[in-house]
From TrEMBL:
UniProt KW Oxidoreductase keyword: yes
Annotated CDD domains: HMG-CoA_reductase_classI
Enzyme Commission no: 1.1.1.34
Pfam families: HMG-CoA_red
PANTHER family membership: 3-HYDROXY-3-METHYLGLUTARYL-COENZYME A REDUCTASE
Record-stated family: Belongs to the HMG-CoA reductase family.
Keywords: NADP, Oxidoreductase
InterPro entries assigned: HMG_CoA_Rdtase, HMG_CoA_Rdtase_cat_sf, HMG_CoA_Rdtase_CS, HMG_CoA_Rdtase_eu_arc, HMG_CoA_Rdtase_NAD(P)-bd_sf, HMG_CoA_Rdtase_sub-bd_dom_sf
Class in the EC hierarchy, top level: oxidoreductase
Organism: Thalassotalea nanhaiensis
Tree of life domain: Bacteria
Record's protein name: hydroxymethylglutaryl-CoA reductase (NADPH)
SUPFAM superfamilies in UniProt: NAD-binding domain of HMG-CoA reductase, Substrate-binding domain of HMG-CoA reductase
């Protein structure tokens, strides 16, 4: 047991003990004019890019970020970035082949992963090959939908109730307005949540093969403008999204429902194959899952899983997805159990996969190339991509848990990351 240290909190804040009047002055507002400014025009033009670099004044960085290929192709990034100065190059590795037997994904996939974390691709590759050798994983898209949740504040609960009574008569109009904003969007459902004199309208959409964040924002804004003009009960104030949507955050609401695409995947692996490829046993992996599940509960985890974020972040960056959506996409449940015949049952369920194969960054050169590598570029492939994501996460869970059970986790990082 560590010795009781009465000064431990003083040690934590020891840096504060050096503060004096001079150092406090550093914290005061500095009202000196800015010495350097970049152009006000945020769009991509060769002249404005050059002016930004003049403001930055770092030739070494410019050589790396604005190479000849980037400079030649920079107009392609016009709809994806503001205040453009160049591109970042990340190493891309492939995991696989990963065999997926899904409702929409039916193939052996080489999965591109863009990352700077050593051992990550190796781990997912090991899991993918294990799954493929076991005959592949079964994957099923269960549900899909993307929501926006405008909020309205009224003087009284009575007014809130009157507004809700009117809003429920407008669903056909809301549908017409939202679907007129895009040929690819469908209003799937409208739910209502009342909290005192606040009303949240939960617009749930289908967005086709696009991830759909911008699409649902534009559609809901059109409805909000209609409500502001036509509602007989006027709100004191309202907002386009009042933080009930679960956008870019882990929430219990999304865990129990869907945000994006909800997918589950499973695999059965023989004891012999577990021993051969992971150097452990199904019993030990099931034991680890039970203990780690309790650990997840004790930590307050939303869902229980090992490291979905690792694979998803690498895949999202490689394939032009919104990387910030990993915050919600990496929520889910991993389960590992011992079958009656002594083999291992493993499954993952991810209810918040925000993925698309059109729109956003999917059309950029490198990102489009990685989707083509997968065979999932363009229309008609978003559901298959979601099932591949589930298979990838299952591969990562099997490999990581196998490494912990075999005592190889630290060894692998020591070997590959140094």
């Amino acid at each position: 047991m560590p010795k009781n240290n009465p000064n431990k909190y003083a040690e934590v804040y020891s840096v504060m003990s050096d503060i004096n009047d001079e150092s406090l002055q550093k914290l005061s507002p500095n009202e000196q004019p800015l010495a350097k400014r970049q152009p006000l025009n945020m769009y991509i033009k060769a002249s404005t890019v050059e002016k930004r670099w003049q403001a930055i004044d770092c030739e070494q960085a410019k050589q790396q970020l604005l190479d000849q290929t980037t400079e030649r192709c920079m107009s392609m990034y016009q709809k994806n970035i503001e205040n453009f100065i160049g591109t970042v190059k990340l190493p891309v590795g492939i995991a696989g082949p990963l065999r997926v037997n899904g409702l929409f994904a039916q193939d052996d996939y080489f999965v591109p992963l863009a990352t700077t974390e050593a051992a990550l691709v190796a781990s997912y590759n090991r899991g993918a090959l294990l799954i493929s050798e076991a005959g592949g994983c079964s994957a099923m898209l269960l549900n899909e939908g993307v929501c926006r949740t405008p909020g309205f504040a009224f003087e009284t609960l009575v007014q809130a109730g009157q507004f809700v009574a009117w809003a429920t008569t407008q669903i056909d109009t809301f549908t017409e307005i939202t679907e007129s904003t895009s040929n690819h969007l469908t209003l799937k459902d409208l739910k209502i949540n009342i909290e005192g004199n606040h009303v949240y309208l939960i617009f749930d959409y289908l967005t086709g093969d696009a991830s759909g964040q911008n699409m649902v924002t534009i559609a809901t804004n059109a409805v909000l403008e209609y409500i502001t003009e036509h509602s007989p009960t006027k709100a004191k104030y309202s907002f386009l999204d009042a933080n009930l949507s679960g956008d870019k955050k882990a929430t219990m609401q999304s865990l129990n429902g869907v945000r994006g695409k909800k997918v589950t995947a499973e695999v059965h692996i023989s004891a012999e194959l577990v021993k051969k490829r992971l150097h452990t046993t199904p019993e030990r992996m099931a034991d680890f899952w039970r203990m780690s599940s309790v650990g997840g509960v004790l930590s307050g985890s939303v869902g229980v899983q090992g490291h979905y974020a690792n694979g998803l972040a690498a895949l999202y960056i490689a394939c032009g997805q919104d990387a910030a959506c990993v915050a919600e996409s990496a929520v889910g449940v991993t389960r590992m159990e011992l079958n009656d015949d002594g083999s291992l049952y493993a499954s993952v369920t991810l209810p918040n996969l925000m993925v698309g194969t059109v729109g956003g960054g999917t059309g950029l050169p490198s990102q489009q190339a990685n989707l083509q590598l997968l065979g999932l570029a363009g229309n008609g492939n978003a559901r298959a991509l979601a099932e591949v994501c589930a298979g990838l996460c299952l591969a990562g869970e099997l490999s990581m848990i196998g490494a912990f059970c075999a005592g190889h986790f630290a060894k692998a990082h020591r070997k590959l990351a140094r």
